[in-house]
Amino acid sequence: MQEIRKFLEQGKGVIGSRVVIKKLNNKLIAKIFIAKNCKQEIKADIEKLAKISEVEIINLDISNDELGILCRKPFHISVVGVLK
Q1: Among 17, 22, 55, 77, which residue has the fewest nearby CB atoms (within 10 Å)?
Q2: Residue 56 and residue 47 in contact, taking contact as beta carbons nearer than 8 Å
Q3: How many CA within 13 A on the CB side of residue 76?
Q4: Biggest alpha carbon distance in the chain?
């Protein structure tokens, strides 16, 4: 969990499924963290793209509201990506 916060503080983290998918298509993502209650369609899309790009996916044991708190945001977060 501290790893996510560290990446965000360094400016290497991107928040949100749309942003992560866009960056993943451009091969700019090194690692992806997914909350346990992420929507199945989004998770499937990200897993498919990550497999093609050979990007590591980490399925978290926390929900999207807890991930939002961890990222110090006032909203739910389902996906966090780490830039290369």
Answers
A1: 22
A2: no
A3: 11
A4: 33
Query: Which superfamily does 2-36+54-83 belong to?
Result: Ribosomal protein L30/S12 (3.30.1330.30)
Q: Where are the domains of the chain?
A: 2-36+54-83
Question: Is 57:29 a contact under the CB 8 Å cutoff?
Answer: no
3-state secondary structure of 79: strand
For residue 51, CA distances in Å to 1, 6, 45, 48 come to 23, 25, 10, 5
Q: Where are the beta strands (DSSP E) in the chain?
A: 13-15, 29-34, 56-59, 79-83
List pLDDT tens digits, range 17-42. 999 999 999 999 999 999 999 999 99
pLDDT category at 1 given cuts 50, 70, 90 is: confident
